[in-house]
Amino acid sequence: MRPKAVFFDFDDTLVLTKKADEVAFLKTQELAKEVRPDVDTAQLINDFTSRFTALPWDPANSHLHLERGVEDLIDWLKVEGIAIVVITNGHPDVQRGKLAAAGIEKFVTHILVGGEEIQQGRPEKPAASIFHRACSLVGCQPHEAWHVGDNLYSDIRGAIGAGLAAAVWINPQGRAASEQHAQPTHTIAHISELQDILVAELQAFSTQTEG
Fold first, then answer.
1. Domain coordinates of the chain in residue numbers?
2. Which UniProt keywords are given for this protein, alphabetically ordered (predicted)?
3. pLDDT score, position 208
């Protein structure tokens, strides 16, 4: 089946937010040491994390950038007429801030934030409903959509449970997917590998239709 849409997780799929989070932690720790050199800075950070993320400037966001190959991949998907949706869990303010900092909003068709879904009385990933909502937004059926993400539970289990055509696991560490988790359709180490898989899928579909 030729995919009509590809859905993407955001954190550590389109951008490496773990590295950005580390930067934010270190910068906050430096600030805490200046203000209160007599206290445990790690504990202090834990105490005010919720307040820190609400500040108008988050040092993590200044280090966010799209992963290598993402823009080329998106351009190719658009040429192929394949819709693009980002499906990300998390607090709306935090996620929207990161999405804006990475500049992803101008590239994709729709963005669904799990925290916003919860505010509307709907669950976030891995619930099937958020994947089905993405399908509705782009006008495709679940079996016509792929999902790509780094989390075996929220991304892979969610996509398979929702009946999507394929669930692609980004697995840079080369970890084995345990039997208790849903098994991915494809496993890649980096987002830049996805296009080759999709090209092969489109070629196979073209061969079938010609035959």
1. 5-16+67-210, 18-62
2. Hydrolase, Magnesium
3. 82
Sign of the torsion angle spanned by Cα atoms 113, 2, 195, 103: negative
Span 46-53, mean pLDDT? 57
Residues in contact with 178: Cβ distance below 8 Å, sequence separation at least 6, in sequence order: 152
* Cα dist from 193 to 31, 87, 119, 185, 199, whole Å: 39, 20, 35, 14, 11
Q: Express each pLDDT in 13-42 by its tens digit.
A: 999 986 545 445 555 556 666 666 776 666
Domain 5-16+67-210 classification at class level = alpha beta
Mean pLDDT, rounded, for 133-137: 98
